[in-house]
Amino acid sequence: MLKSDFYYDLPEELIAQEPIEPRDASRLLMLDKHTGAMQDGTFRDVLEALRPGDCLILNDSRVLPARLLGKRAATGANVELLLLTPHGNDTWEVLAGPGRRAKPGDELTFGEGLLTATVLEILEGGNRLVKFVYEGNFYHVLEQIGQMPLPPYIKKRLENGERYQTVYSRELGSAAAPTAGLHFTPALLDEVRAKGVEVAFVTLHVGLGTFRPVKEDVVENHKMHAEHYELSAETAEVINRTRARGGRVIGVGTTSCRTLESVGLTDGIVKPADGWTEIFIYPGYQFQVLDGLITNFHLPESTLIMLVSALAGYDHTMAAYKHAVEEKYRFFSFGDAMLIL
To answer: Is pLDDT at 142 greater than 70 in this prediction?
Structure first.
């Protein structure tokens, strides 16, 4: 398939610039993956679509305040780092801007000296490897001086950083939010459980590679970025119990989907696992674990719309996106949602 097969025309005014209040007041497009039938509703309609005996799998990763604004120690020039991946011993792979100014040996300072960094090397692709120096706990320092790394298409300042976190986030490590989960409230999750739907968690730390454009014209030639995941014994048990009773395994977000499918089945069951995944899901992929998906509306020609097309079918997916544009749904991270069953 070609990357251009996944293009759709999106008016800029449909890109959501702020989250809706309350969280579960967003719209929901329900898509039947077998027939392509669509139904418009609100996010709370998820409750009606779920059945007793199903399970809902959510990604509990929490976004790091990973955007650091500071100065070059030697010149006082502004510098910005975006934390990507920890490499151990207080070293991180980062995006640096202005990029060409961050050279090996450069000393950087943030938060009036609460955090300092030395550029160690320039990595393939232009990212930097830096080593941080601080007192106390690194993540506590980040909470004090870091900013939320909102996607570049969001131009409006976010006043409350918790609105870019899910209500169930707990494992720090993501460079971007697993945004499908932003629609859930604690009360709605309680109602889901009360209906007889089990709720379980995986952890996949979202990397910024999620937002990188596909550069290859032929989809199959694209290489995915790696992201770290963990699926616990408790969650594996929930999934296996659901499958055994004929219930549906429904992922919340493409990150939950990628975790489930990275673990897959061994002798017909899901087993606990953790590691790094580079799984690339596009049309033709045969799902092993996932039956349904709650997801937001994704960028044209992105790996995320390709994943959705693999589950719902290419024609059904592109028709749903056309419908969403015509009906003026809100798109991307702070936008509306789609339920695929």
So the answer is: yes
What the chain holds in terms of domains, given with CATH numbers, is 3-63+160-340 (3.40.1780.10), 67-145 (2.40.10.240)
Which residues, in sequence order, are bridge partners of residue 273? Answer: 231
State in Å, rounded, how far the first CA of the chain is from the last one.
24
Global pTM reads: 0.91
Q: In this structure, what token pair is assigned to residue 59? A: 């990604």
| Bridge partner list, 15 | 331
Query: Are 116 and 107 spatial neighbours (Cβ–Cβ below 8 Å)?
Result: yes
| Rounded Cα gap, residues 193 and 152, in angstroms | 36
pLDDT, residue 323, reads 98
Cβ-Cβ contacts under 8 Å for 250 (sequence gap 6 or more): 50, 54, 55, 56, 57, 290, 291, 292, 293, 294, 341
pLDDT, tens only, 41-84: 999 999 999 999 999 999 999 999 999 999 999 999 999 999 98
**In contact, 86 and 72? CB cutoff 8 Å:** no
